[in-house]
Design a protein that fits this description.
Blueprint: H1 2-11, E1 22-24, H2 32-42, E2 46-48, E3 59-61, H3 68-73, E4 78-80, H4 93-97, E5 102-104, H5 112-120, E6 124-126, H6 130-142, H7 144-160, H8 164-173
Parallel strand pairs: 1-3, 2-3, 4-5, 5-6
């Protein structure tokens, strides 16, 4: 699964980012314990949100519900999962709205319009695999100006599309 792939590249992650924290938020609560076990088996230090405030760790497991905004707000870069495997992706507009540079894999068939919007606005990067994910994260962490520009482009893209439902309803009523 994608969680395991993320752990593999983090164990060999660039030593310049030894203080980096990987936040993993499984989509389904029934996966929380299995993901925690994988993290523990990887040899990385783990903090679980369900246990309380995070302790020093290299991986923070977001094993809670309704706090995705908090996890994105605590991040510098967002990789939106469900997209390296043919699952269809998840909502990339949430991290973009917060001004984060967004990364996702090639399988975004459930969010085609959002994918295209962010790519067209240079607010996201589509990565092919875990190696490209690691390289892209490192590139963004070492180039804060690029990360900021991508984040601002994403925030602007989301803002420009707010109210789309109301505009559509107005058109349909005419």
């Amino acid at each position: 699964r994608e969680h395991s792939a993320n752990l593999c590249w983090l164990t060999g992650f660039d030593p310049r980012f030894a203080e980096a924290l990987l936040i993993i938020v499984p989509r389904h609560p029934q996966r929380f314990d299995a993901v925690a076990k994988r993290i523990e088996r990887s040899g990385l230090t783990l903090a679980r949100r369900s246990v309380g405030l995070p302790t020093p760790a290299s991986v923070w497991l977001g094993d809670s519900m309704g706090e995705m905004f908090l996890y994105f707000a605590a991040s510098d870069v967002a990789f939106v999962g469900g997209s390296l495997a043919p699952i269809g992706g998840h909502n990339v507009l949430e991290p973009a709205a917060l001004g984060l540079p967004v990364l996702f894999g090639p399988h975004m068939h459930n969010f085609v319009a959002a994918r295209e919007l962010l790519l067209e606005r240079n607010a996201a990067l589509e990565i092919a695999d875990v190696d490209a994910l690691a390289a892209s994260v490192i590139a963004l962490l070492t180039d804060p100006a690029k990360a900021l520009a991508m984040g601002e482009a994403g925030r602007a893209a989301v803002a420009a599309n707010r109210g789309a439902l109301e505009r559509l309803w107005t058109i349909l009523q005419q």
